[in-house]
Design a protein that fits this description.
The protein has 855 residues and is α/β, with parallel strands linked by helices. Helices cover 45% and strands 15% of the residues.
């Protein structure tokens, strides 16, 4: 018989209970398979525990067809996860009934990606039933809580955009808002990263074949998607009408994932669409022996939802991305309007803005604007101008990164081929926009050219950001600095035309995921001192300031930090074979690999430290473990070269006895949410070092601060506001400001060779880069880095290198004073309350969506 779980999980879990402390729950399944419940559970929790246990037991027996004693860890995980899903579905029905009874205005959040992370523990904690698992004993050596790490991360997102969307869904449910996510059900996600001789390699992330326990297929909610074809123009009753004919059809099949708000009162859903062929088998071709041709259409159709962000280097990749985006918005709008028609039987579209608001998360869903107009005009006979006004009252747009690749542009010829009707609508919107600009700014043809939805030239393009602004009621940035740059620089023309449209909504993170679930021991320490109100009101963390100088509290904080370092150290050992010291500073930079995020600046500093030790005989006051993580897009060769550079540094430094007692370097492969949940709680220093003015917001900075890491960073994105909140003395600032960066780049003032000649630190490290010292036998491998920095350095790494190195020296000195460092770290925790996604979503709901919680 397996070891008994104590009836009170808060007591010593090593103590066993007698057989009489457990009872078999009655049920239809033979008693030898029954689970056992602790007799010592709180009476008020008994009904919930019995229900959960019965769900687990039934799922194991009837869905998996397994007896509990023979079940593997994966079987037990599946049974528990589906049981929790079933428990959540009951709450989902209750939520839907409440929303419908109140005729609540609904929020529809459209995002091309959702980086959800593992859901079992998060849902258990949000339902407040995590600790109840200790009252259930299964007839198996594996304990229920021990199966949580058997879950595989859903490969539905990649970076900050997708993780923000996931945090927002959590907050909408926690705040009892009727908010629903829409996206694509990727079969393989982005990719699974591994290293070969230090180089990033990619392979398919086959999460989907594992059959997610959270997804519920909704075969009765499918959507037919038209693609390609041509337009026919007809005169009907004196009115010019466009018909989209000879199209190819694809079917979108929705899968729902419950989104559990904290406390379990509200459970919304995330609806993701998989692409299926409208005809799964060409029977005539099959019977004629053309077996490959018989399934050709099925394979081609299902490619749409195979991979997140297919490579767009070739025209075929661009076309797949556009097809993917239209498939996504067509399915989403079809479902949104179906729900609208269920409540508005007269199908009066003028009521739509009072019934629904559609939030576009970046430009990927921007065709939702033209799709909504197409449906109103072509399927319901609504006048164009009336349809445009309704659309503009329904749509809202969030601008994220303002890099060229983020502000999408699609060629006119590609749009003409894939969605010809939408291109026609875009031109009609543009004509009305140009008429408005001409009337308000007569004779300003340069302004008209900048604001036009169409970028003229030998090959014409449609500017999707301009379309999103023109077709929305609200345009928001995601940090105050970012919003100011959007209004005053990048979209100043639109801001002058529609100043009331533009607003700021600084991003946030959900503390339920990034503290309660990711760092439960620290969460318990906080709750023991200030209560659990912080779980839904993060501003309550301010109360921790009363304990900053409490020796017992500080010791507990350090003990938990060390424990988390040891946990992360095991992951590092398992994935890289590198041993790290928990006594060292854990200095972490984990995010998508991109030049503006400047992982290369971090790596150059690491290289300089190594050279300073082995060539200059310097001894640093504190050992540091430099931790990197993140993926480079497969076609982004320079970013992949940076990864190779870091991995070479790691191999050289970690095996050099002259330096490896002072510094360690690791690049953790295949960075994802479950890995991030181990990194943030273990970190001492948070690297937020993007070139000022280029990061929209960043949310990793918030997650690190919430878990007691101190930031070294530029005044970029949300760093500016974090520094204001936590205090400048608790933030290591370096580098140029956004205004300085803008001026340097506009006027061409940067002189890398002057810095090379004037700063011996820069000269020493750059010479080592170009002479092959870090090449591990390949002298030329990093010459592109040298050339990029010395002959361009667009992101101003060398301009910021000196102050960055100075800041790191200060960090090592300050870390020697444990009381000082604890104060800095804990004040970061106590003052980070502003950066909860609950606050962000409350502002969206109040200022943009005009929705209220349902009671």
């Amino acid at each position: 018989m397996s070891k008994k779980v104590p009836s009170n999980p808060k007591k010593n879990l090593k103590d066993s209970q007698n057989e009489c402390d457990w009872e078999i729950i009655p049920g239809a399944i033979p008693s030898e398979y029954n689970l056992k419940l602790s007799k010592n559970m709180p009476a008020e929790k008994r009904a919930i525990v019995e229900k959960l246990a019965a769900l687990i037991e039934n799922r194991m027996h009837y869905s998996l067809c397994k007896m509990m004693p023979e079940a593997s860890k994966d079987h037990i995980f599946s049974a528990l996860a589906v049981a929790v899903r079933d428990y959540s579905v009951d709450k989902l029905f209750e939520t839907a009934k409440r929303h419908n009874k109140n005729k609540s205005k609904k929020v529809y959040y459209l995002s091309i990606e959702y980086l959800l992370g593992r859901l079992l523990e998060n849902n258990l904690r949000n339902l407040e039933i995590y600790d109840l698992l200790d009252y259930i004993e299964i007839n198996n050596p594996v304990k229920l809580k021990d199966v949580i790490d058997a879950e595989y991360d859903p490969a539905l997102g990649n970076g900050g955009l997708g993780r923000l969307a996931a945090c927002f869904l959590d907050s909408m449910a926690t705040l009892d808002l009727p908010g629903y996510g829409y996206g694509i059900n990727y079969q393989f996600g982005l990719f699974k990263q591994y290293f070969d001789d230090g180089w990033q390699k990619e392979k398919a992330d086959v999460w989907f074949t594992r059959s997610s326990p959270w997804q519920i297929e909704r075969g009765d909610r499918t959507c037919n998607v038209q693609l390609y074809g041509r337009l026919v123009h007809e005169n009907v009753n004196g009115k010019q009408v466009s018909r989209w004919v000879d199209t190819t059809s694809v079917v979108g099949v929705p899968f729902d994932m419950p989104i559990v708000g904290y406390g379990g009162r509200t459970v919304n859903f995330l609806r993701l669409f998989s692409a299926h062929s409208s005809e799964s088998l060409d029977l005539s071709a099959f019977n004629e022996g053309g077996y490959i041709k018989a399934v050709e259409q099925k394979v081609k159709s299902e490619t749409i939802s195979k991979v997140l962000y297919p490579a767009a280097d070739e025209d075929s990749g661009k076309e797949l991305r556009l097809v993917q985006q239209y498939f996504f918005v067509r399915c989403s709008l079809h479902d949104i309007l179906r729900r609208f028609f269920e409540t508005e039987k007269d199908k009066d579209f003028e009521k739509l803005p009072d019934s629904a608001v559609i939030q576009l998360n970046d430009t990927h869903p921007s065709l939702a604007i033209t799709e909504l107009m197409r449906v109103m005009i072509d399927e319901h006979g609504i006048d164009f101008d009336k349809a445009l006004k309704i659309t503009q009252k329904t749509m809202a747009y969030t601008i994220h990164t303002i890099l060229p690749e983020a502000l999408e542009k699609w060629s006119v010829d590609l749009l003409q081929r894939v969605v010809p009707r939408h291109l026609e609508i875009i031109y009609q919107i543009n004509q009305r926009l140009m008429d408005m600009v001409s009337a308000q700014f007569p004779g300003d043809f340069a302004k008209m050219e900048r604001m036009s939805l169409i970028q003229e030239g030998p090959r014409k393009f449609v500017r999707m950001a301009n379309l999103s602004i023109a077709g929305s009621m609200s345009v928001n940035g995601v940090a105050q600095l970012h919003t100011d740059i959007v209004k005053n620089i990048f979209f100043n023309d639109f801001y002058r035309l529609w100043p009331d449209k533009f607003n700021n909504k600084t991003n946030g993170i959900t503390q339920r995921r990034w503290l309660l679930t990711a760092n439960p021991e620290f969460a318990d320490l906080i709750t023991d001192h200030i209560g659990n109100g912080w779980i839904t009101d993060l501003s309550q963390l301010r109360k921790l300031e009363n304990y900053i100088d409490d020796a017992s509290f500080v010791k507990s904080f350090y003990d938990i930090k060390r424990m988390n370092k040891e946990k992360l150290g095991k992951i590092i050992w398992d994935t890289t074979g590198v041993q790290v010291s928990p006594d060292s500073i854990f200095d972490c930079q984990v995010k998508r690999i991109h030049e503006y995020k400047r992982q290369l600046l971090n790596a150059l500093h690491v290289a300089y430290k190594y050279l300073n030790i082995v060539d200059n005989g310097v001894t640093y006051p504190q050992r540091v473990t430099h931790i990197f993580g993140g993926k480079a897009f497969p076609s982004y060769e320079f970013a992949k070269l940076v990864i190779k550079f870091v991995n070479n540094l790691a191999q050289i430094i970690n095996t050099d006895p002259r330096a490896n007692n002072q510094m360690t370097v690791v690049f953790i492969p295949d960075y994802k949410v479950s890995v991030a949940e181990r990194i943030f709680p273990a970190s001492d220093v948070s690297e937020q070092i993007s070139t000022a003015g280029f990061e929209a917001s960043g949310t990793g900075n918030m997650k690190f601060a919430l878990n007691g890491a101190v930031t070294i960073g530029t005044l970029d994105g949300a760093n500016v506001e974090i520094r204001e909140e936590v205090g400048e003395e608790n933030f290591y600032l370096f580098g140029l400001h956004a205004e300085q960066v803008h001026e340097i780049q506009e006027k061409g003032l940067h002189r890398p060779w002057d810095l090379y000649n004037s700063d011996p630190r820069i000269r020493q490290v750059m010479e080592a880069v170009t002479n092959g010292r870090f090449g591990l036998g390949s002298d030329d491998v990093f010459k592109p880095i040298f050339k990029s920095l010395m002959f361009s350095d667009y992101f101003l790494l060398l301009a910021d290198f000196g102050s960055y190195e100075d800041a790191h020296r200060q960090i090592m000195n300050d870390y020697q004073d444990s009381a000082l460092w604890a104060r800095k770290a804990l004040l970061n925790v106590a003052r980070v309350g502003k950066f909860s996604s609950d606050r962000t979503i409350t502002e969206y709901a109040r200022d943009i969506w005009k929705v209220k919680p349902t009671t």
